[in-house]
Amino acid sequence: MYNYLLLLCLLLITTASLAQHDTATTTPEPIPLLRQGSFTAGGTVVTSPGTFDPVADGAFNPASQSTAGQTLHGDHATVFYQVPAEARPLPLVFWHGYGQSMRTWQTTPDGREGFQTLFLRQGFPVYLLDQPRRGLSGRSTQPTTIAAATDDQLWFGIFRLGEGTEFYPDVQFSRDPAALDRFYRQITPDTGPLNIDVNVAAVSAVLDTIGPAVLVTHSHSGGQGWLAALENDNIRGIAAYEPGSNFVFPEGEVPDSIDYVGGTLRARGVPLDTFLRLTEIPIVIYYGDYIPDAPVANPGQEQWRAAVAMARRWTETVNAHGGDATLVRLPDLGLRGNTHFPMSDLNNREVAQLLRDWLSEKGLD
Known about the structure:
- The protein is built from nine helices and 16 strands.
- By secondary structure, the chain is of the alpha/beta class.
- The strands form five sheets. Strands 1-4-6-5-9-10-15-16 form an eight-stranded mixed sheet, with helices on both faces.
- The longest helix is centred in the C-terminal third of the chain and has 22 residues.
């Protein structure tokens, strides 16, 4: 009887369309799991000089405790994973953006299924990570000061929900005040100085642990994802949601920087033979709505105008060298109102279906 029910659940899971499943009006089907768990990967160990004295230093007193001869394990990535029964061969590894954690990919702020569950239902093993010095990977080997700044409205604009406290017309983010409250509360501070090399090394160690996988990035991790792919052959494809920095070009082909209200977006160069690694895997980039094509006075929109312009140059360069990179603007496909977080917007199932179709098209499923 149990095996019959298990097979029935698997049939429902594998045949259901991401876009058609509506947990707001139906009871979600259970997801049979083969296994789940968590682990850390990468990181370093710092050792203080001297000899540890368990008698003199055994009592915990931060004001007077000696660190002589003691170690600190930090700067690793932390991963939570779930592998469904009858799993597809290639896992999806989800990497969050700036000021965020694996929370980005979990339940949406208004309580619906996020990408973690949507793709698990489609049979993909799902790995969610917190990069070094963020979230569950908070043990840093370098100190920092965490400011308690009142900056919610700044992020409201940068994340393109609207301006100040006013939502954009027809925005796909829930207007429920409780959803906005939870959205603000998923912002996560850095517990050490932001170090891209440290992040890339730790995520590369994650891929060494998992093996071949598809990397799914968001915002700040987009550029770090390119760098990780340059180092690790286990990355078999990349889907990047709204990358905003660290676009890499071949040396001698680095485009001019792009100025925008509040800053300048610069690309970086790598040797051509290194860059060509990015031409060996399929890559897709997605951007949402409220991104102008010409300069505007709104700084929350401006930096994404620059990012889209740089992404366009980047995909053209990858493809000119024989690669397979695609730039998708969701409004061009009829998906309007998406914020910087399309994975948790009200139409996240339609957004997920686009990725699901791309994975199938590229043989990554």
